[in-house]
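Practice set, problem 2.
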Amino acid sequence: MNRLLCLICITLLFGCEERNSVQTSGDEIEAKVEMSYARGLLISEVENGYRVTVRNPQDTTEIIGVYNLVKAVESGVDTISIPVNSEGLSSTTFVAFFDEIGEIDRISGVTFTDRVMNENLLQNIADEKVRELTSAGEVDFEKVLDVNPDIFMAYTQDESAFSRIEKNDIRVVMNMEYMESTPLGRAEWVKLAGCLTGKLDEATAKFDSIASAYLALKEKAKSGNTPEVFTGSRYKDHWYAPGRDSYIATYIKDAGATYTFNEIEGRASAELDMESVLVSVSDADYWGMVVSQDDPYTMEQLMEIDPMYERIKAVENSNVFFCNAAKSDYFGDAVMEPHVILADLVSIFHPSLLPAHQPVYFSLVKGRE
């Protein structure tokens, strides 16, 4: 039985924002917008627009791109006219950033429209206002040229293809949110969408509200006990789990729990020996994962994958929680709802703290009959 069984859990902090004015060359005043969580995004307010620098969140010395966003002028080799009228997106995750600030109608094309779950964009797709940009599982740059958006937002480097579309006056803007180590770091990239659409103030207000709600939940979780939680899944003879600096591990800690695999450095998933993992997780209180399937996920299905899971305390006590990505927009809207995910986790780990909470993304797997 082929079931997609991926790892998951969660983390975050919170972010405030400050603007510090500095004098640059000549008479230009540059107001730096302090990014509290997003390590890969730098924004400066300059005369008549913004200067946006995109860096590698894991190595901030690596500059991915610098974009000069200028109000009410035609885009040029070194500038992008804002607000942009239309955007092509290489990831469904980017949809949430524009929807959060009420700018969903500026999206003219997106890859993998069959995976879109955002209701507002689905309506625009049905109304043929948004085009599919994928062929054979990859970005189709012929379709991008045909849609002809003002910008194409991407997350991977493909210099040959990008240079081709940029020759047709379609500017490529890189978005590295997926490499951020915290959920709030990912959500803070909404400010990039704010700059592009002329709504930085609205994007900042939205983010601050989300961060405040997140921090309040994080503080509440400190009053409960501290269960041990692990994530990950088996593939062939190995177990794969994210490192302690991943946003998944952060979610777990911010929800008032300890992360079983906290010895794994970095944010990427590590390959672990299956037998040693079974020993490490045998007494953990909870096991979290992401699945993707049309029918409900059950404990019986979990046991069919590996009967050895019976040896795990979390399985014995029916303390396995999951998100079904086929039913909830975990790879889309969730990027702008870290506070909702955190509430799900707090209610699972500390049910008495949020007794009225209704799960949105994560819930406990139904126990065996």
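Problem 2, part (b): a different protein.
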Amino acid sequence: MKNTHTTTQLIGLFCLAASTLFAQGKNKQAVQGAEFWRNLEKSCGLQAQFSVDMSIEAMGLSMACKLYRHSDKTRTEMTLPFMNLRMAALETKVNGKDVHYSLFPDKKKYVIETDEAPETEADAKVSFKVTEAGTETFEGAPCKKRHISMTSSTGESQEMDMLFSPAQKNMPVKMTAASKPPAEPGETPMTITSVILFKNYQFAAPSAALFAIPADYTQAASMAEVMMSGNAGEASAAGGMADLLRKAMQNAAKADQ
């Protein structure tokens, strides 16, 4: 069980590097991630209705995702590394409040993310700053370059360089980020460097069904329960994933020193 809990935390850190995928961890990360994207939309005049393929490189690992955005709703689909477990992060509103779900299509289960952090951390303030940084050519097209800084009062910080393409309605096409999540007690703080590519934008409205929980899904108490609900091989994969991610993070930290 400890390995599975560690896996859940490391998935959150991996997604933390992706900025738009914060919903895969403690709820305070989900809240801050949602706030990041809303600030980005407001500051840079982004489209609020689209779908896009994302390719994420972080900690020596790679992951492909599909992001759907419609007004105040977001869905991110991915397959978790090493476990071959499909997952969809869903952020929507219920009674005017942000709610974050993790959906597992292969198991027909979902988890409602809950806040495990003290209230002072859950209510952390996040500073957000965008600085114009000229232009840069990416894949043959001139793009606007912006440097974005985000710092939380609880210790998380990110520095990002993002390229926005006029050919894609001024949406981001590349992000290079350096994230500094807070270290657990007894662990050495480290920087997670990631590169995210955005491709194949579609600006039609995504289907409303993408932002709803399917009727045949049942609620699980936690991600740990989902990961342990299969066979022993899946549990072993969860532990192996935690070990591999931890080693990748340690190697990345050494490389940056």
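Answer key, part (b): The longest helix spans residues 232-256. The CA atoms of residues 72 and 92 lie 7 Å apart.
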